[in-house]
Amino acid sequence: MRNYSTQMEAAKKGIITPEMKAVSEKEKIDISILQQKIASGKVCIPANINHTSLSPEGIGEGLRTKINVNLGISGDCHDYTSEMEKVKMAIKFGCEAIMDLSNYGKTNTFRKELIKMSPAMIGTVPMYDAIGYLEKDLINIKAEDFLRVIEAHAKEGVDFQTIHAGINKRTVEALKRQNRTTNIVSRGGSLIFAWMEMTGNENPFYEYYDDVLEILRKYDVTISLGDALRPGSIADSTDAGQICELIELGNLTKRAWEHDVQVMVEGPGHMAMNEIAANMILEKRLCYGAPFYVLGPLVTDIAPGYDHITPAIGGAIAAMNGADFLCYVTPAEHLRLPDLQDVKEGIVASKIAAHAADIAKGIPNARDIDNRMSDARRRIDWEEMFSYAIDPEKARQYFESRPPQDRHTCSMCGKMCAMRTSNKILNGECISFEEK
Asked: Is residue 378 included in any domain, yes or no?
């Protein structure tokens, strides 16, 4: 029988949980240091008490940068079998989190199966599911109805929920004064904004925030404070709407910690490269060091079809400067629901960004695998190189698609391979380019 409600409460009481032990071993971090970071809110371990298949992961200061994969059905594409293939792809590549963003019909059957089989953390945005779950038009949904959806997701075993509690009447006024290029691009944020404008009421997630926290505390669900006013274009980055909401999120972070609810804060969005580092510092300062979960940032707006690359660039810069959790973006972003290949490309791009950032910020042992890869390249050991690759299958496919005559080279350099030449000379051998 647990004598604590959440990982944060346990950490404050000096209790070492099984989840803390698992994260300590994975991250090679002293468990007492980890416990202190969880107690202070600088690290969270999203781990719903009903998610029994979970392999716990820590998110936050001093830990490896984690990756989230978004999936889910829509009205135009509602093939649950296809979405489950994407889940398997995410698990195969070792992604630490999967968000079910389904927004059509009754989604709980798929979500329950996902939670049952997934070792990765599961996240949702209850606002997406509210209309289908409640079978009501948006204007007819009551505050208590929104809370019902939050509890339903929590009870099913969701580890973290994106709650857009920071968009309130004050931040809406700041937004309206701003005259943005792209207005509100957050799907959940736009729905809350529409509900507020149509009903004249305050954001229910903000007005009844203490009730939201009590639900999340009951199931040990981490709140991911959604950035409803994140910039959807580089023209809108770091504007009054974004910063005004971030200030509100800082206040909501402290209130959640007072209830022993773990917190992540969500961030931009679209943003020019020269603004990213300052935004990471600003979030950490205004939100008291809470883990930062970023979508990208996408560093340019003109790459539809290649929008797995634009956020990989921004994500690497963001994580190097303090972001803790990257949400992948696929080549299909802004265009359509991603297919399986899109998901793979988005995952790989995001993992490259996260790993590159971990090397840059000195995460212990982060560069060990790079060193092993370099040693294997020096020895021209292809099998070993494939084993260290982020995507071994693609690396092998490229090599085998045009194999060299000499397996100790590749078809680009052949016998002029710099590694081969250097190795032979250093071993006291002569080199020859004559055909034999």
From this structure: yes
Q: Over the stretch 276-323, which tens digit does the pLDDT of each residue have?
A: 999 999 999 999 999 999 999 999 999 999 999 999 999 999 999 999
Cβ neighbours of residue 42 closer than 8 Å, sequence gap 6 or more: 60, 61, 289, 290, 291
Q: Is the domain of 216 the same as that of 139?
A: yes
Burial tier of 47 (Cβ tally within 10 Å: 0-12, 13-18, 19+): buried
Q: Which domain holds residue 405?
A: 368-426
Q: Which residue has the tokens 């969880």?
A: 38
Taking residue 64's Cβ as centre, other Cβ atoms within 10 Å add up to: 22
Is this structure's pTM higher than 0.85?
yes
Q: Could you tell me the CA-to-CA distances from 95 to 155, 223, 334, 348 in Å, in that order?
A: 23, 20, 23, 10
Residue 237: both structure tokens together: 């980055």
Total tally of structural domains belonging to the chain:
2
186 lies in the same domain as 264: yes
Pairing outcome for strands 292-295 and 66-71 = unpaired
Q: Please choose, from the candidates 136, 125, 76, 79, the residue with its C-alpha nearest in 3D space to the C-alpha of residue 98.
A: 125
Tell me if residue 274 falls in helix, strand or coil: helix
CB atoms within 10 A of CB 422: 12
* In-domain check, residue 139: yes
338 and 394, same structural domain? no
pLDDT tens digits along 170-226: 999 999 998 999 999 999 999 999 999 999 999 999 999 999 999 999 999 999 999
**Residue 106 pLDDT more than 90?**
no
Question: DSSP class of residue 163?
Answer: E
**360, 380, 409: which is the final residue of a domain?**
360
Token pair for 398: 């490229």
- Window from 26-30, 98-102, 239-243, 407-411 with minimum mean pLDDT: 407-411
